[in-house]
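$ ./design --mode recover --in tokens.txt
reading tokens...
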């Protein structure tokens, strides 16, 4: 059985049909109940760059920033508009310039039916290789548009129960003890904290947080550790400190070391930077305990849903995460959250200039709005 056939088989076991840009299969269908579809319409794509302002400097093991570039998209059909977004943190290699260049090459006027989701996304994927955040911006807008046409939230079109959304973590980046205390106070409404580690003050970070709260923690090292023995020692120490999983502790290229760590760690080891597409899940299913799926990495909601099914079929834990994003992209990811074990959907909470109203956090839990599409309203 070759890799492509294996992926199709595993995803079929999970009950999610393989459709879209990478694989053959039955097309996704949506009920049309509130709109008399006209076959003579055309899809109109609009887009504009925007810069997100972070409330605090966002510091990881290898970088620090106070802004994140995004591109906001709109997809219109017969007077109905769907919203999308591309977010480009530095490690993805995309930028305002690259996303705008990609979108300028996309001609969706050739499609007269937005329900041809498979055909549209295959076309978009073939415009240029890579550019997954740019592709996600179209995918999200298309899902939002289809939901608005049908008058249904995406989670309902997917057959998902909104009561089954998980708690979300709230991210605390690397910082001084004084700023860490401030961030923990700001995170009071959230029941799980996600702590960034990977520099020489890792233990100080955790001890500072533990002096303030006994909430469960998850730890993201962003490839910051280089020695597997040190990683294992830290995994045991973090387990004692109430950490529930450890995300991307070493560089993604160190597959053998990470697999060894996964076998010996008391904590689940979650792949993030190492996992972008479905092929990565298959090739690294024995390296990690679980995977962090993000719309900006894989190209959107459609690909993410397929990846969740594949990971489940392979017995892996699943987290859905986000970049620094507005409520648009975060709400799109939240539509899939009833399918996962954990979610880290706080990117919109870390910025001061959101332009959308969307999903909410209630008692630390993701709450999906009962609005059509991805559930957002544009504020400005």
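writing sequence...
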């Amino acid at each position: 059985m070759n890799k492509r056939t294996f992926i199709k088989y595993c995803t079929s076991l999970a009950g999610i049909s393989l459709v879209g840009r990478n694989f053959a299969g039955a097309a996704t269908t949506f009920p049309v109940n509130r709109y008399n579809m006209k076959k003579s319409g055309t899809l109109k794509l609009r887009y504009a760059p925007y810069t997100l302002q972070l409330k605090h400097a966002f510091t990881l093991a290898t970088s620090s920033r106070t802004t994140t570039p995004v591109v906001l998209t709109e997809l219109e059909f017969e007077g109905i508009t769907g919203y999308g977004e591309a977010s480009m943190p530095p490690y993805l290699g995309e930028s305002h310039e690259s996303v705008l260049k990609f979108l300028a090459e996309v001609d969706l006027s050739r499609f007269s039916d937005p329900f041809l989701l498979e055909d549209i996304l295959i076309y978009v994927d073939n415009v240029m290789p890579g550019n997954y955040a740019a592709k996600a911006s179209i995918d999200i807008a298309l899902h939002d548009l289809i939901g608005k046409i049908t008058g249904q939230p995406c989670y309902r079109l997917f057959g998902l129960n909104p009561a089954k959304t998980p708690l979300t973590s709230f991210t605390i980046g690397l910082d001084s003890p004084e700023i860490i205390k401030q961030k923990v106070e700001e995170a009071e409404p959230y029941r799980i904290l996600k702590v960034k580690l990977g520099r020489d003050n890792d233990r100080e970070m955790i001890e500072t947080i533990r002096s303030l709260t006994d909430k469960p923690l998850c730890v993201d090292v962003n490839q910051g550790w280089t020695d597997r023995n040190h990683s294992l020692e830290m995994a045991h120490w973090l387990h004692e400190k109430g950490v529930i999983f450890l995300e991307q502790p070493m560089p993604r290229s160190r597959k053998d070391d990470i697999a060894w760590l996964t076998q010996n760690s008391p904590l689940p080891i979650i792949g993030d930077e190492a996992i972008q597409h479905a092929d990565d899940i298959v090739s690294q299913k024995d390296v990690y305990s679980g995977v962090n799926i993000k719309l900006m990495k894989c190209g959107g909601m459609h690909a993410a849903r397929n990846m969740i099914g594949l990971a489940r079929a392979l017995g892996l834990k699943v987290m859905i995460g986000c970049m620094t994003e507005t409520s648009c992209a975060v709400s799109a990811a939240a539509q899939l959250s009833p399918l996962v074990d954990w979610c880290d959907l706080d990117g919109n909470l870390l910025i001061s200039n959101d332009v959308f109203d969307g999903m909410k956090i209630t008692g630390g839990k993701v709450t999906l709005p009962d609005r059509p599409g991805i559930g957002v309203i544009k504020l400005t």
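exit 0
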